[in-house]
Amino acid sequence: MLKKIEAKAKELKKQTLTLYLAYTHKRVRAYKKAFLLMIMIYALSPIDLIPDFIPVLGMLDDLIIIPLGIMIAIKIIPHEIWEECREEAEKGVSIDPKYKKIGAGFIICIWVIALILMLKGLIYYKS
Fold it and tell me: How confident is the model at residue 80 (pLDDT cuts 50, 70, 90)?
């Protein structure tokens, strides 16, 4: 079972590299690149939307959101571009570290907004 999980993790990493290469591809339209960027920064972010220490839900977001996003990306990117990027990812590519920082910033912003809304709700509820 551990080998199966390891194989899935390797495949997910390759698909994330393929996402990155599709994002940087010249023939991919801007609106598709925006979707690819969202999935890519979420996948690369060192901070999760739902932290892993929360039982079940913490791992569930990684097991559902990222594969679902990749599945949609495969559908919206032309097949020949996806295959070209996948082959290039097989050779080995490093992703620019700035995307990890962008991803972390994005997740932090979501948490800050959620906390502000919760605090406003508490203040409104008490008054």
Answer: very high
Query: Which residues 6+ apart lie within 8 Å of 67 measured at CB?
Result: 12
| Residue 35 clears pLDDT 90, i.e. is over it | yes
How many domains are there within the chain? 1
Q: Is 18 exposed, middle or buried (0-12, 13-18, 19+ CB in 10 A)?
A: buried
> Cβ–Cβ contacts within 10 Å for residue 21, how many?
21
Helices 30-44 and 98-126, axial angle in degrees (round to 10) = 80
pTM to 2 decimals? 0.68
Domain that holds residue 81: 2-126
User: What is the SS3 assignment for 95?
Assistant: coil
Tell which residue, 37, 64, 39, 38, has the closest CA to residue 50: 64
Is 16:86 a contact under the CB 8 Å cutoff? no
Query: pLDDT band at residue 2, thresholds of 50, 70 and 90?
Result: low
Length of the chain measured in residues: 127
